[in-house]
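Entry — protein

Goal — fold tokens:
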Amino acid sequence: MNTKLRERFAKLKPGVAAGARARLHPGGDGQAREVLGLAWPIVVAMLGDAAMGVVDTTLVGALGPAALAGVGLALTALFVGYTVVFGLMRAVKIRTAYAVGEGREDEGVRAAVAGALLGAAVGLAVLLLSRDGRWIFVAMGADAALVGPATEFFRAHGLGAPALGVTVALVQHLQGRGDTRTPMLTGLAANALNAALAYALIHGHAGLPALGVAGAGLATSLSVAAQAIALSFWVWRGARGRLALGPLGPSLREVLSLGAPTAAQFGLETLAFTTFTALLGSIAAAELAAHQIALSLLRACFLPGIAVAEAASVLVGRALGEGRPDRADRAVRAGLWIAAGFMAFTSVGLGLASPRVLGLFTADAEVARIAARLLWVAALFETVDAVTIVLRGALRGAKDVRFVAVVGIAASWVCVPSAAWWLGKRLGWGAVGGWLGFVGETTIAASLLAWRWRTAPFRRSGRRRLTGRLAAGLEAS
């Protein structure tokens, strides 16, 4: 680069000059470190969320198998409702990341408030539904002995549903700001509080009443409420008076517009997976047991991948808010390398270690044999799944939520239940046949999402903005 051109770059706006230098020296700004820095607290927070359910289940186990099964049934019903919240609140993260990139953080705060209101509204609907949820479990075909415990836990857990909606909105807002550690720390504190309260309220310790399964649900509700209060204070303190600025109507509409497709995707994909699981259960108990064991082990593979995708989503939104699609591309490349490398390594490692690992989960030789095969099928699709997961996050960060939703819903329903029915049940391949549907799903989705990322609408508008800024900078020189 000659001296005259360097002088011209120096006179350009900082963002444009940085973008031009980045094209000459790609990867020089530590995108991989930034992705990892955002992702690892998200992984810890996800594990904490899973641990809360595990703690409830473990402590309730002392009350007997009916209570334990009832809690599991209630958690399944609650998860279906909460997927709407989880999907809808992704919009808060996207809008906040854009606002940070645009230098308009007050817009991000309004998105957080709008998300909290919508989350509380959905949570209120869950709370009202949980007041008498017996009919839900009867409709699910639950054994009569399970309906009572499931209803009690459902009612007590539902009390915290509005607080959960607020918590999810504020977590997404903070992550969109690039703060993934505060949600992690408040989540871990909530888990510790939940464990202590559940122990006391289930069995009647520390002067508290013995409420049985209802005590486990109430402990979770109180813990989530405490986290919502802590996060609200943190966001309010960081907003520095911006909470009262401007009307909330536009922010509410934007959160709904960006979040509704993802909420629909999460809900319909969950339904597709539930159908898949039911079909496996209709083949043989050993097939379903092997599926559950293999899936539990694979969480160690895909949870970090999801965290990397969430980090990529934040970085893409921020970069596009800055008008820097080059930075968005580098963030996605870094995310793809990290997620694909980790998920490929861990899935192959699980396949190789399956003879030893599976012995920790089952003494049944047939179940272990099927699960080992499933882990090797997973080794085939986990790398491609990493591409799918990261590109989903990236495209959501670019506000391309509808395309992602359509691809996700279509691929899951076309490939997953159909493979369980045709390959697994009709052809007699069992769970292995069903899992081959995941190979098809991830391959189709990864191909379509990769094409979309290369041709995304933001590239055309981004090029026009960059050309205009370069021209203005050169004229000023």
